[in-house]
Design goal:
A hairpin with a 5-residue loop joins strand 10 and strand 11. Helix content is about 15%, strand content about 35%. It has four helices and eleven strands; from the N terminus they run ααββββββααβββββ. By secondary structure, it is an alpha+beta fold. The two termini are about 20 Å apart. The chain has a single domain, classed as Lipoprotein localisation LolA/LolB/LppX (outer membrane lipoprotein receptor (LolB), chain A, Clam), CATH 2.50.20. An eleven-stranded antiparallel sheet has the order 6-5-4-3-2-1-11-10-9-8-7. It is globular and about 55 Å long.
């Protein structure tokens, strides 16, 4: 389970959701070229799509460099609340309550907590983190895909994250977060893919709570 936990922290390396490749603030020092202006517009769309999500649920598939696959369900409620509930064979839960990110490992009865601002999920969770300041658009092979690399230069220990959006009518701002890739300082890559997105449902506060694993081996249901 220690290995699975390490993979999860890297993947949700918004830690989460968290940031990516080091880049200068988007505010330009010189007049923007047409290509730069287009890139800025795509970055603005991606930021708007993230911030426009009120609630969302999606299935996730997490794959490491060795091909090991973990699955589960993601629940998101802005601002700052997220839950990664793994399938039954992984007795672990990752939850943010809007202030801190908790990793509850019920097999080893351990709990780890991090302020959102200090977690790889920051780019997704922290409404005070300006994604446009830390992000840059990465070229893709399709005009229907926007790929944004984000990183916090002040926290090089966290994985570099690349967030991948696809055009999707009905999704917030017309873009759907379909995946992200975390690359740590040892060049270990973890990919999280989302599917079966649902938006706008009621999600209670209780979804972002957890049973303290210290003294129990049962994950909350």
């Amino acid at each position: 389970m220690d290995r699975l936990k390490a993979l999860s922290i890297k993947a949700l390396g918004a830690a989460t959701a968290g940031a990516l490749a080091v880049c200068a603030p988007v505010a330009l020092l010189a007049p923007a070229t047409p290509a730069a202006a287009q890139s800025d517009a795509r970055l603005d769309r991606a930021v708007r799509a993230l911030r426009s999500i009120i609630t969302m649920k999606a299935n996730f598939t997490q794959t490491d460099r060795g091909g090991q696959v973990l699955t589960g369900e993601l629940t998101l409620r802005n601002p700052g609340r997220i839950r990664f509930e793994y399938s039954n064979d992984v007795n672990m839960l990752i939850v943010s309550n809007g202030r801190s990110l908790a990793i509850a490992d019920y097999d080893v009865q351990q709990l780890e907590r991090y302020p959102i601002s200090d977690s790889p999920l920051g780019a997704l969770l922290d409404p005070d983190k300006d994604l446009a300041q830390y992000g840059r658009v990465v070229a893709t092979n399709s005009p229907q895909v926007i790929s944004v690399a984000v990183s916090d230069p002040n926290k090089p220990e966290f994985p570099e994250l690349t967030l991948i959006f696809v055009e999707k009518p009905g999704a917030p701002a017309g873009l759907e977060l379909s995946a992200w890739v975390a690359l740590d300082s040892q060049n270990v890559r973890t990919t999280v893919r989302l599917s079966n997105h649902r938006y706008g449902m009621s999600v209670p506060d209780s979804a972002f709570t957890y049973r303290d694993p210290r003294g129990t081996s049962r994950r909350p249901r």
